[in-house]
Automatic annotation (TrEMBL):
<dbReference type="GO" id="GO:0016887">
    <property type="term" value="F:ATP hydrolysis activity"/>
</dbReference>
<keyword id="KW-0067">ATP-binding</keyword>
<keyword id="KW-0813">Transport</keyword>
<dbReference type="GO" id="GO:0005524">
    <property type="term" value="F:ATP binding"/>
</dbReference>
<dbReference type="GO" id="GO:0015807">
    <property type="term" value="P:L-amino acid transport"/>
</dbReference>
<comment type="similarity">
    <text>Belongs to the ABC transporter superfamily.</text>
</comment>
<dbReference type="Pfam" id="PF00005">
    <property type="entry name" value="ABC_tran"/>
</dbReference>
<dbReference type="InterPro" id="IPR017871">
    <property type="entry name" value="ABC_transporter-like_CS"/>
</dbReference>
<feature type="domain" description="ABC transporter">
    <location>
        <begin position="6"/>
        <end position="235"/>
    </location>
</feature>
<dbReference type="InterPro" id="IPR003439">
    <property type="entry name" value="ABC_transporter-like_ATP-bd"/>
</dbReference>
<dbReference type="InterPro" id="IPR052156">
    <property type="entry name" value="BCAA_Transport_ATP-bd_LivF"/>
</dbReference>
<dbReference type="GO" id="GO:0015658">
    <property type="term" value="F:branched-chain amino acid transmembrane transporter activity"/>
</dbReference>
<keyword id="KW-0029">Amino-acid transport</keyword>
<dbReference type="InterPro" id="IPR027417">
    <property type="entry name" value="P-loop_NTPase"/>
</dbReference>
<protein>
    <submittedName>
        <fullName>High-affinity branched-chain amino acid transport ATP-binding protein</fullName>
    </submittedName>
</protein>
<dbReference type="InterPro" id="IPR003593">
    <property type="entry name" value="AAA+_ATPase"/>
</dbReference>
<keyword id="KW-0547">Nucleotide-binding</keyword>
Amino acid sequence: MSDALLTLAGVHTHIGQYHILQGVDLVVPRGGLTMLLGRNGAGKTTTLRTIMGLWQASQGQITFDGRDITRAHTADLAASGIAYVPEDMGIFAGLTVRENMVLAARSGPMDQKRLAWIYELFPALEKFWNWPAGNLSGGQKQMLAIARAIVEPRELLIVDEPSKGLAPAIIGHLIQAFRELKSTHTTILMVEQNFSMATALGDTVAVMDDGRVVHAGSMHELAHDGDLQRRLLGLSLDAHQ
């Protein structure tokens, strides 16, 4: 994880009259899982959406695998090996699980060996393969959203609050799935409010406040320093284990 796959340097984003990102500097090491933490409204989701080209940076530079992607279109970023799981999951409720997966396989028919691996990660998807996605539970929908993102190999997976609103048992299942993904050397950037999940998965961490990254380092350091947690996040992670 010594080299950076994704970097943001001095990134500003305006949405209408609002100046949301105010000089974000972020490094996502290749092959690891970077957690992006911070209070509500700190700019985390805006950072992810700016990386994906859904909102355009008004200043600064975004680099992916040595290439400047600051002005790249979202479709081109997806084709270059970046996948994005938004907070609202982005699945097609009126289509079946299978149809959702087929649409996500951009380069052609789904690889059956990879599909079998996804079934191992998320057995419910095989069980409900021909069900309308809108009939799935919240946890199953999140599994489908992640499965869509990894139906083809990706260099970078960006995930926004995957545990939001889910039961602890489902969160535990997601943790195991992301650990398996990490073992394949997929680089992951994740926004997560569940601090137990963050400490279980994160290799590196960046903490945002008021549209800037105010701390970056190892997740292990933050997880074992209550004073640092309180200073950066206003709470101790120990209270959320």
